[in-house]
Amino acid sequence: MKRVYNFNPGPATLPLEVLQEAQAEFLNFNNSGMSIVEISHRSKPYEKIHNQAKADILELMGLGDDYEVLFIQGGASLQFAMIPLNFATKENPGSYVLSGTFSSNAYKEAAILDVAEIAASTKNDNFRRVPNQDELKINPNAAYLHVCFNNTIYGTEFHYIPETGNVPLFADMSSDMLSRPLDFNKFSLIYAGVQKNLGAAGVVIVVAKKTFIEKSPDILPTMLRYDTFYKKNSLYNTSPAFAIYIVGKVAAWIKNSGGLEEMARRNSIKAKILYDVIDNSNGFYRGHADKSSRSFMNVTFRLPNEELEKKFVAEALNNNISGIKGHRSVGGMRASIYNAMTIEGVEALADFMVKFRNA
Ligand code: PMP
What we know:
The protein is α/β, with parallel strands linked by helices. It is built from ten helices and 14 strands. The strands form four sheets. It has a seven-stranded mixed β-sheet, sandwiched between helices. The chain has a three-stranded antiparallel β-sheet with strand order 11-12-14, covered by helices on one side. Strands 1-13 form a two-stranded parallel ribbon. α4 (about 100-110) links the parallel β3 and β4. The longest helix is centred in the last third of the chain and has 21 residues, at about 260-280. The chain is globular, with a radius of gyration of 21 Å. The mean pLDDT is about 95. 4'-deoxy-4'-aminopyridoxal-5'-phosphate binds next to α3.
């Protein structure tokens, strides 16, 4: 069986052990004679998986029972709308840090509802960096400050947790969720589409302080209300059982591998390998992100011209390296090196980059 080194930004590579386990169990889940995709979301065996995945996520994040984990469909993109619908008003607007495409998309949804303002933006720097603490202009009446912790397209990441005073901090962690330990207690709400670091597309994990999600505004329809998901243990309607089952397996894999400390150790080794190749290439490879904001998850870089970039992608594939082409808004290359990407895979890419440059 041939598997490539998969550097796709999401859906992305998953731990081989997780795929193998899911394959082995696929036809006969838990001795039920049925597949996980065939059993009821209200059955006991499924409920066990659902609740264990929630417990493992909280444990990995070091959060107590003042936090709740919700499973919601509609992608991280629906969270862009649900957040202002549930929390922002004209008097207490949502305050947004614009640091890339997805944070801008989140802002747009709140702006449609006319409950948005901008706390900071690095658009004029072509999103090469995230703003510093002292650039954040946080309205003390804001319902929340929204940040995108890792900017998947531009390859930048927050390396500090913004101080927000009394304003609750909300974060989109779609592309760096569970990649490193953080003081998660400083956040009131965190969300992540799981298809990068945590599983198969089809579900979003929302981790929120219970006090924030126990009561939504009366005018909201049922499926747009956080309190529906909270009160019904994310089982008000049919849950995406397969996606949650894979999330549970990935969370268990992270736990068994040594938790977030070990993920951070591996991720910093991987990132350093690639940034070192870029920095030691005499300008052949040019990183997009400013050094201070470099992401440990998505390494973005350009080559001297587009022709070489095309050649790089094609030759990479011949070397078993897939998914390396960058997003069209940045151009060049992007190596997504989430938790499941092995150090061996990153070394293969680094070797190829050196070879390509010397050719
Ligand atoms: N936020 C970030 C940081 C992302 O990388 C993405 C997807 N690439 C999204 C949000 C949007 O996620 P979805 O496609 O699940 O709506």
